[in-house]
Amino acid sequence: MNPEFWQAKWRANEIGFHQNEIHPLLSAHWPANALANARVLVPLCGKSHDLVWLQERGFSVVGFELSEIAVAALFAENALSPQVTILEYFKCYATAGITIYCGDFFSATLDLCGTFDAIYDRAALIALEPAQRDVYLAAVRRLCPVGTRGLLITVEYPEGLVLPPPFSLTSTEVAKRYGEWCKVTLLAQRESDVKGKSALEKAYDFVVES
Ligand SMILES: C[S@@+](CC[C@H](N)C(=O)[O-])C[C@H]1O[C@@H](n2cnc3c(N)ncnc32)[C@H](O)[C@@H]1O
User: What are phi and psi of 86, to 5 degrees?
Assistant: First the structure.
């Protein structure tokens, strides 16, 4: 999907991916004890309530989001007043415990935002067309050194069931994409609604090994 696709979705408020609740696979499977005070990368974060859930548990949360509508809504809806600065290609919104870089995640560099201890990916990788997966994972790898722990949430459905995004991502594809540089473990799966159809939502734990 190109940036204009997402900007148009936010302008039209067509944000069916946004959840009013904390994601149940996050609250059930986030390895909080192993990650005390960790700096957590949340790519393609939207205005997810999961950002605040992580921040409230003492994590330092750094999100990336293209849409300024989403970023402004995140802070306004949570009654937070961020400081706004321009950093390279990004407009950076920062408040205690939550920083959001508004711009294209694919342009993120170590010099810009430093490294991370953990990453939370819900509806980020699967928001992207298969042809964009390499560039997305290259950006993740730039920012996540050996030892970084991740929680990845995907959906799986038969081809043609719904018009993506989200794109179906099989466990075989996850093993292929992450297995070369991470230890990946399937933690849980559950039935989930995707655009009115029943799909399988899966949560994976991964630890960067190279
Ligand atoms: C499917 S939504 C998921 C949002 C969030 N993770 C959630 O769980 O609600 C994907 C989000 O990624 C944003 N996005 C898409 N491409 C992006 C990019 N290259 N850089 C930063 N954000 C992007 C979109 O604007 C959209 O808000």
Answer: -100, 125
